[in-house]
Amino acid sequence: MGSQGGFGQSKEFLDLIKSIGECRSKAEEDRIVLREIETLKTRLSSPNTPKFKLKEYLIRLLYVEMLGHDASFGYIHAVKMTHDENLLLKRTGYLAVTLFLNEDHDLIILIVNTIQKDLKSDNYLVVCAALNAVCRLINEETIPAVLPQVVELLGHQKEAVRKKAVMALHRFYQRAPGSVSHLISNFRKRLCDNDPGVMGAALCPLFDLITIDADAYKDLVVSFVNILKQVAERRLPKSYDYHQMPAPFIQIKLLKILALLGSGDKKASEQMYTIVGDIMRKCDSTSNIGNAILYECICCVSSLHPNPKLLEAAADAISKFLKSDSHNLRYLGIDALSRLIKISPEIAEQHQLAVIDCLEFEYLFVCSFSCYKASMSLNLAFPYMISISDNHYKTEIASRCVELAEQFAPSNQWFIQAMNKVFEHAGDLVNAKVAHNLMRLIAEGFGEDDDAADTQLRSSAVESYLQIMGEPKLPSAFLQVICWVLGEYGTADGKYSASYITGKLCDVAEAHLADDTVKAYAITALMKIYSFEIAAGRAVDVLPECQSLIEEMLASHSTDLQQRAYELQAILNLDAHAVEKIMPMDSTCDDIEIDKSLSFLNGYVQQAVENGAQPYIPESERSGMSNISNFKSQEDHESSTHALRFEAYELPKPVLSQNVPPILASSTELVPVPEPLYVADILQPATSAPSGSDAGPSELRLRLDGVQRKWGKPTYSSATPSTSSNDTVKIQNEATQRDSVGISNSKTRDVSYDSRKQQVEISPEKQKLAASLFGVVSKSDGRQPSSSQKISKHQNPTSDKSRAAKTAAPDTAAVKTSQPPPDLLDLSEPSVSSSAPSVDPFKQWKAFLI
Amino acid sequence: MASVLQQDVTVGARGKLALLIHFVLLISRQAKVRLTKWYSPYSQKERAKVLRELSGMILTRAPKLCNFVEWRGYKVVYKRYASLYFCMCINQDDNELEILEIIHHYVEILDRYFGSVCELDLIFNFHKAYYILEEILLAGELQESSKKSVARLIGAQDCLVEDAKEQASSIKNMIAQATK
């Protein structure tokens, strides 16, 4: 049959397709299609159009809709065509309606009558076409209209009709189980149909029925086993063979059904062992379809009552998959392994090396993520993460670990430990947000009203950090988290003395002399611990090393560190009451209330004005100066860190600026900070404040206590913000720093697959890696099986996969861009063609012409 | 996507009755659509979105990667034949290799029907490809795994077409003669 015009299309149609094929742009295509739509609109509605022409127009309409344009104006013509007496037109009509319409479309009602008539037709082809439409279009309301005829057709002499009738009934069952519940026995009957096609079709509804209620079909176990046996013994007609496998699709369906029936049923499972074992033995593992059956067998074995022999066979098959060169098979291998591990964890041990080999391929790693749920995949991920030296992938994987951990953590402790691992291995690559999230999590707990649990979480975090912090070369982000947590909660549960914690903090600061951020965190932590001590009325003895550290900081080049050190000194000299106000215990989660209008100062301003001070003129009224000041203010905005500013800070609410000078004048005794900055910091703690001054404002605020108490709202607590605003500013500040580091890291990433490979090639090391990793797996499985199981039950099994997939997409895409363009005739795996000596269609594919 | 999700929810309520195959797509290497068959309800807008997303994902995938893509909680199994990508969307826990072979099964039948099929055959006779697909997949399930049965049915339908044509031409002749 010719490729062009072999089926009698007109030249017009061919031209349309050709011109669309030759389109260079989407706009051009759209223009052609729109023109075509106009033509079709007039021609279809014209009463003079001959019927055989109508058919072609309808096909052209299909084409237009396929290209994504609205063809709804022509739906009615498709419906009309189904009414036609001419079989050719009727068939086209049915094709068009099944493609155009959904089951809830309004036009369905117009077709039901035709379908009813056609189901009674003498011509079995008409009946088939109608049944196709039934499967697609009949909805719950219209089922009763066609149900009797469909049931009658189950006994039709033509097997094609019986088959489609079974499928239609299955569809009805899916749509509205109630409407056909009395007809379910028909599916059982069709199982014994003479025609294998009908029998195969009957397996589909039975599979659904058994999924819902396996117990009602236990009596069929023997029949299914027998059918499977017969299929495997090639008793079906030769035409069902596919690549030398006897009816593989039917085998797979049967295996799926057996898996359902045998799940948790020892007696039923025992009946299946022989046949499943036979099939696994017989499978031709060189062809795709053979492997498909093998995979289905593994799935089946993993859901049957465990049988050591079969498990062994399944494990063998899995190891073949994992060692295969085909990525598809490796993918399935990991998937199958994750199924089998559930019932026999020791298999994991056998295959740990193979799995780790698979992990070397980043994209397979992505797959394995979706297969291995939560803890499993994380345990796999960590050793893998160590082994990669490419920062880009490391970042990718670290962020995915974090994502998974956040989603599936079985317990808080587990989450903290997992995060520790992530930070340990890839700390500098993790988004700074992650660190802040972790801090927030520790501070807020998990939102439950269970204070005991929160406290426990914190002390376990402190404990784990104290253990970890001794290790050399911890990434900066992680150290920041450690310092923060130790500062907030180090002494909270009384287990560790203040001097112990402060000593540790000093060690951290001293070990990272080059890292100002860490030092800043450490000194703030020191400040917190000292103030908690003071507030609790205990005498503070500053360790000599702390003292020297503070002194060193006082002379630091970094104004930020200096500021913090001065603050610390100032606090050390305050009395318990004041310190308690400044640094309340555990106040990070408290909301900060900010009186933006500074109304408490109104009295003061009033007084000043009465005493002859100039009243404040809002900036909008000072328009005469606007030109210069606008220009200047822009400049100032950019360089606000360096320059002092002379005019009022340009905020939308002028009241603020008005009130600033008085504050400074009245209550500031501390280091004078440029006033506009002060306002900016208080009002917009979210903006990344310049590092030199972010601690200053909070200190200034602290001194406002007296002012507030006299004039402020009674609810306003100025003490709380001290730590929190301090921290938020800091966190933001570091976030920006961290980001820039991350960017530069990824820029300078050195693609060094080689070094990674080398690492993996060293087999003893790898083995150690594997042993440790799977050791962890089995241990953790043993320790908290209930929680992890709970997780897996709770979670929709698909959701994490999808999640992984979502993130996987850009990753793989990014990897791919560097690949050379795919070969035009790059076809499937060689194994397929080698196993299909009959006719290999790939070879005959012609080159792409249009 | 909302509609599909909704369906899954209602289906989930009475057990897992999701379709085997949610849709079949044929996309050329230039991201031109050659055939689309939707077994789950998707609005025209959703369809366009799905096509855009998937063609972006699949066409850019390196050839050495596996033939399965995870997408929105589903899996898309695809295979490339010359310049055409055959894609099928399935549920997460289905047997991907089986789907791969269903695709191949379809291709073999197309090949047998057109006699070494090429993309042009499918471009100009896409309705034929639809007819064949309807005989292989019905309501998202594999209805016939015997190539012979499919070929027989399609052959019978084509005979019908030939008959109808002859009939039509003879009628036309008769009319022509009568009007002479």
UniProtKB/TrEMBL annotation, chain A:
Function comment: Subunit of novel type of clathrin- or non-clathrin-associated protein coat involved in targeting proteins from the trans-Golgi network (TGN) to the endosomal-lysosomal system.
Region annotation (Disordered) ranges: 709-765, 778-839
InterPro entries: Adaptor_Complx_Large_Subunit, AP4_complex_esu, ARM-like, ARM-type_fold, Clathrin/coatomer_adapt-like_N
Location(s), subcellular: Endomembrane system
Domain Clathrin/coatomer adaptor adaptin-like N-terminal span(s) in chain numbering: 40-360, 384-574
Full protein name: AP-4 complex subunit epsilon
Pfam family, one: Adaptin_N
Family of this protein: Belongs to the adaptor complexes large subunit family.
Ranges of Low complexity composition bias in the record: 715-728, 805-817, 824-839
GO CC entries: AP-4 adaptor complex; endomembrane system
Keywords associated with the record: Golgi apparatus, Membrane, Protein transport, Transport
Polar residues bias locations: 729-746, 783-799
Oligomeric and partner information: Adaptor protein complex 4 (AP-4) is a heterotetramer composed of two large adaptins, a medium adaptin and a small adaptin.
GO BP annotation list: intracellular protein transport; vesicle-mediated transport
Bias (Basic and acidic residues): 747-765
From TrEMBL, chain B:
Stretch forming the signal peptide: none
Top-level lineage group: Eukaryota
Pfam families per record: Clat_adaptor_s
Keywords per UniProt: Cytoplasmic vesicle, Golgi apparatus, Membrane, Protein transport, Transport
InterPro entries: AP1_sigma (IPR044733), AP_complex_ssu (IPR016635), AP_mu_sigma_su (IPR022775), Clathrin_sm-chain_CS (IPR000804), Longin-like_dom_sf (IPR011012)
GO cellular component: AP-1 adaptor complex; cytosol
Domain AP complex mu/sigma subunit: 21-154
Location in the cell: Cytoplasmic vesicle, Clathrin-coated vesicle membrane; Golgi apparatus
GO MF entries: clathrin adaptor activity
UniProt topology in membrane: Peripheral membrane protein
GO BP of this protein: cytosolic transport; intracellular protein transport
Transport listed as a keyword: yes
Main location: membrane
Family of this protein: Belongs to the adaptor complexes small subunit family.
Subunit and interaction comment: Adaptor protein complex 1 (AP-1) is a heterotetramer composed of two large adaptins (gamma-type subunit and beta-type subunit), a medium adaptin (mu-type subunit) and a small adaptin (sigma-type subunit).
PANTHER family reported in the protein's UniProt record: ADAPTOR COMPLEXES SMALL SUBUNIT FAMILY
Function of the protein: Subunit of clathrin-associated adaptor protein complex 1 that plays a role in protein sorting at the trans-Golgi network and early endosomes (TGN/EE). The AP complexes mediate the recruitment of clathrin to membranes and the recognition of sorting signals within the cytosolic tails of transmembrane cargo molecules.
Name assigned to this protein: AP complex subunit sigma
Source organism: Sesamum angolense
Taxonomic lineage of the native organism: Eukaryota, Viridiplantae, Streptophyta, Embryophyta, Tracheophyta
